[in-house]
Amino acid sequence: MKKADKSGVTENGPTAHEPGRHAELGQTSEVAPPRKRVLRRVVRFGFLAVALGFGVWAVVSQWEAISAGLARLSWPLLGVSLVAVVGALLAGMLMWRALLADLGSPLRLTDAAKIFFIGQLGKYIPGSVWPVLAQMEMGKDHGIPRARSAAAFFLTYPIYLATGLLVAVATLPAFAGDSVSGYAWLLLLLPVLAVGLHPKVVNGLLNLGFRLLRRPPMERPLTARGVLTSTGWAFAGWAAYGAQLAVIVHGLGATGPRAVVLSFGAFALAWCLGFVFVLAPAGAGVREVAMVAALAPVLDQGSAIAAALVSRVVVSVGDLVCAAVAGWRAGKTEKTVE
To answer: Domain extents for the chain?
Structure first.
């Protein structure tokens, strides 16, 4: 048991009487001085403005092709697709929340949604660090150590990658054939991910990283239950993402079970490839190429491109909707508590 100094802080974090201890209840860890609170708000609004700007630019730059695809789809179909995207994003948030809880920082649903969805807008900014920096900053308000926020964030990606590759393997080879054979090298990552996601390996790597950064080791290691729970949410997310693309593909003229199955595999393959090419903001461009190739057996190239671009727009709108609703709900909850 580490001894606390006079300020009530141990080597590994706050003691029982320190405010950060109440993070399990979703309470704010500290009350910042007025000037610091203003600065935080300015920085956060600046982050949102930049993220939204890049997101809008990504859509506007391809608007001619996107509008052509939207013109071929009815509003009810687009609405159903958006609902499926929101379901997928919720599954992603619950996956991250499960990892964070397993590492020792359980959060109320409204707090988790606010941190996750607003932080995720950073993926539209070139570079890969903005979402994790945003989540680390907002997580501080709820007593989450920066290292723990970073660990939970980075763990979501290998879990998504492993489960996404499994979805692609289960759906594409028999239905897409040669059109996706050029991406078969991605399967080499599966055994690496299977070993790397074992709790003992994950905990060893995390503690090694903390040691290199001269930080104390994790207070609570990741458990098998945490990995399995988050994996379940990841598969739920892939199911919802596949459904949203299947609705779009159906609206563009591809019907039948084959088109549905290919939609699930196409979205998973596109995401996995976009993740590997991390220099592209949110996988821009790279994902569309892979998605078009996977949908080639059921759609002509023009329709497949339209499906890929419309899917990206719907996912982007889903990101904005989730961030706006989560921020509104969290603000309403905070006012009620006050």
So the answer is: 16-337
Which residue pairs from 126-132 have beta carbons closer than 8 angstroms and sit at least 24 positions apart in sequence?
A: 126/54, 126/279, 126/281, 127/281, 128/278, 130/47, 130/51
Task: Tell me the HSE value of 9 on the side-chain side, using a 13 A CA sphere.
Answer: 7
Burial profile 63-85: b = 16 or more Cβ within 10 angstroms, e = fewer = eebbeebbeebeeebbebbbbbb
The Cα 336–Cα 107 span in angstroms is: 18
> Do 269 and 286 contact (CB within 8 A), yes or no?
no
pLDDT along the chain (338 residues), means of 10: 44 40 42 55 57 60 69 91 97 96 93 90 73 85 88 92 94 80 88 92 88 82 95 97 96 92 95 76 72 92 90 89 82 56
Pick the closest to residue 320 from 56, 3, 107 (CA basis).
56
pTM of the model: 0.79
